[in-house]
Specification:
Elements lengths: L2 E5 L2 E4 L4 E8 L7 E7 L6 E6 L6 E3 L7 E5 L5 E6 L8 E9 L2 E4 L3 E6 L1
Parallel strand pairs: 2-11
Antiparallel strand pairs: 1-3, 3-8, 4-5, 4-9, 5-6, 7-8, 9-10, 9-11
């Protein structure tokens, strides 16, 4: 059974940095892409960033490129999201997803709240 778990969320002040972690278990993920998404209250879930199975290709939301950085951990089943200069509008539940072809596994999300 595949399990995906995010961690690292919390309450921070504007301008702070935060690193989210995501870890999956239950199968081999070496060929899986990984991505981060977020959903604010009253809004649809939006794409944040993704990284390829080998970790050599990254993609970012245009509005977040430069502040957020996605990376894979040394373990094949971990992914991180480094967030810098956080703004109140970054407040959301952040989800990670592991995907390969038609398969996709989502975590339950971690709350990030940025106060002004």
């Amino acid at each position: 059974q595949v399990q995906v778990a995010e961690s690292g969320g919390g309450l921070v002040q504007a301008g702070a940095s935060l690193t989210l972690s995501c870890r999956a278990s239950g199968r081999t993920f070496s060929n899986y892409g990984m991505s981060w998404h977020r959903q604010s209250v009253g809004k649809e879930r939006e794409f944040v960033a993704s990284i390829s199975g080998r970790g050599k290709a990254t993609t970012y939301s245009d509005s977040l490129r430069g502040r957020f950085t996605i990376s894979r951990g040394n373990a094949e089943n971990t992914v991180y999201l480094q967030m810098n200069d956080l703004k109140p509008e970054d407040t959301a539940i952040y989800y990670c997803k592991y995907f390969n072809g038609g398969e996709a596994y989502w975590g339950q999300g971690t709350q990030v709240t940025v106060s002004s």
